[in-house]
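Troubleshooting log. The previous structure file for this entry was overwritten by mistake, so regenerating from the original sequence record. Sequence copied from the archived sheet and checked twice against the printout by T.R.
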Amino acid sequence: MKIEQIYTGCLAQGAYYIESNGEAAIIDPLRETQQYIDKATSENATIKYVFETHFHADFVSGHVDLAKKTGATIVYGPTANTDYDIHAAKDNEIFNLGDIQIKVLHTPGHTPESSTYLVIDKNGKEHAIFSGDTLFLGDVGRPDLAIKSDVTKEDLAAMLYDSLRSKIMTLPDDVIVYPAHGAGSACGKNLSKETVGLLGDQKKTNYALRADMTKEEFVKEVLEGIPPPPQYFSKNAMMNKMGYAEFEEVLKKGDSPLDPDTFEALANHEGALVLDVRTQEDYVTSHIPNSIFIGLNGSFAPWVGALITDLHQPILLLTPEGKSAEAVTRLSRVGYDNTLGYLEGGIQAWKHAGKEIDTLKSISAEAFANAYTSGNIHVLDVRKDGEYNAAHLDNVQHFALDYINDQMNEVDRDKEYYIHCAGGYRSVIAASILKARGFNKLIDIAGGFGAIRKTDLSITETACSSTK
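Regenerated output below.
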């Protein structure tokens, strides 16, 4: 038996390859599926099953494409209904894979159809669980993401309590836990940076698995402090339920080189959004007017999903050289399939064609400190609420970048703003969005709050505040 975790850091997502005696199963695959086919081929194995733990909200799974390419059966847990062919498994149903068995444990709570897959080795030993978003290391899945459900988040939280205690906590302590996500995922509140662990350790350390915890306590603690889900979550869940365009077609269309004139015409006349995925330093130095910056070097796909509200938005890409296919792929992972192409030759080709260039003023933290102490200036902090509550400058305006589309009316076009985040990535995203909406008096603070801390400015800190 071979189990391999295929972890994608920018999504904090774990897919899994399981193989036994020439038969393979993939659990929760990413949108681009060739990697799993190549893996199986290298192992002389045939992909027999694609197991989905639930209707994912934070990414578009590759299950539909993978099944088409390999003939594998897509398996969901009980109550799952889709617009394509699946096997909706019964609770405790067993699937044979080579010399091992995979048992379906229906564990509703994160969503109604959520299921955990228990691997039983050839000797009959309960070896590992693939827990999806039912159980993470350090946390459990948020119970407020069910699509078109007639149950409340409180109902689902209560179901999750029962699922954990009747299906998961009864398993042996030495069972290995393979979750769908690690730290950085918005599917939970307090996920560990570790991505593999033992169930016994979780029973001792995971707040949601306390033996003396009542259902009422569980519901209260699980729901406490959950921020609203990003706007793309429900849309991705529907794509996973209903199906989607083939990834190769999306990539072929999106990874198309465009000359500057064609690129400009599409931006001006087709309503396409110019998405600059270079580094923030590159954007600051020179960028296409009205373009939005979200760099590949950060949490690219989640920020696209949080900030670009229309999955069908036509997108034009300005990329680092050789990164166009990566950008299209990462967009498709969160359901943005309408990329029209990329600027061939990049910003240099744009300049050579005599097209207009814009810049963003950026200053050092030391220069900002001088401005802050010498006059009445306006500062915009776009970090998350927990970061701001833990430590911040006095007399600054704050809202998290996540909500900039809703809170833009709180920014005055006639005032000059110094913008910062923690390190410089999110502040340039915020500045680019504001600039595209006609806010022109913006100054980025290079290095963000991390650099500001190194100056002599006084910082207000709250020792017990969460930074999650």
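Confidence is low (pLDDT under 50) at residues 464-468. Archived copy saved in two places this time.
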